[in-house]
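Q: I'm writing up a methods section and want to include an example of the input and output format. Could you take the sequence below and give the corresponding predicted structure tokens, formatted cleanly so I can copy it straight into the document?
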Amino acid sequence: MSNKAFSATGNQMIAEAMRQVDPDVMAAYPITPQTTIVENYAKYVANGQVHTEFVTVESEHSALSACIGASAAGARVATATASQGLALMWEELYIAAGMRTPIVMANANRALSAPINIHGDHSDVMGARDTGWIILFAETAQEAYDNTVISFKIAEDSQVLLPVMTTLDGFITSHAMERCEMEEDATVQQFVGDYHPKYALLDTDEPVAHGMFANGDSYMKTRLATRNANMGSLPIIEKYGKAWADVTGRPYDLVDCYETDDADYIVVVLGSAAGNVRHIARQLRAEGKKVGVVRPRVYRPFPEEQIVEACKGAKAVAVLDRSDSLGATHAPLGADVMSAFYAAGLSIPAKNYVYGLGGADVTNVVVQGVFDDLEKVADGTLDCDLRYIGI
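A: Here is the clean output for your methods example:
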């Protein structure tokens, strides 16, 4: 049973989840729109509500460096960042995954400069998609809380041992107030349990090495091991998601599907904009149109089987990206979805849209236009070229 139902922001809920887990170490640097996560957590430390060693650093690069060192030593570790801060961690993102350090990091998804912009889109997190981190997307503040709790179990599982990024859309989810439920502290602590590191650097009885040099053959073997751990984590993510659902009564699916069983036209979308898309889909359903919405809750590893299963009966699919892959034919999510269709032998026409960059509004009119386009895509009167919408 939940001990509290109240209004909170996504950042507050992530800070509360981390407080309940009470990691050994947090090293962090403030950056909009993530700042209130670590700001709140610093208060918990100062008030003696947690036993965490809070390390103040001079940059985000240093923050993740300190987290990697602490995790390698055998500590349970958490941090948070956003945008330029995540970009400044670029080198360390690869190191954290390659060294198999199970760090949990919250990212308040935000645009990257230039021009200067502090608002929400997925440009920052998509830049990290190939680093080896497991990446979760929250639609709501409630999901931001749930995903954060689950992330510790995923990261620290002996079959995974990878860092996990639990993300939420900057300002839209990070700062907007929503009705949320928070479980009892004891419930969360019992769920995550104690962390017993498998390869702790400071375990002198069973010494190990971290961060070694590797030539080509050995390097390739480590990259393959990291790939296999990441790809193999999907059923483990699902296992812990379902276990948390059993505790809370809140459902957990790797991919959230709305009215896709008989849908002719489907929109695939990540994060907070899914609510806008479902709203229009409900209206169109009321008019007798068979439309549906697919929202991946997990982005890395990519849940291609679940997405293919949800979309396989559609006449046309739209993929909405809140980022772009400049110089490529398609944006990140669009390329992943189309690749999944190709691998499954599906010939569904799919149109990729880029929307909401730099916090640009995602209006009902914009979403309605996407559904209208799909009928034209299906009958061949509209091409499948990438299109920017909402400008």
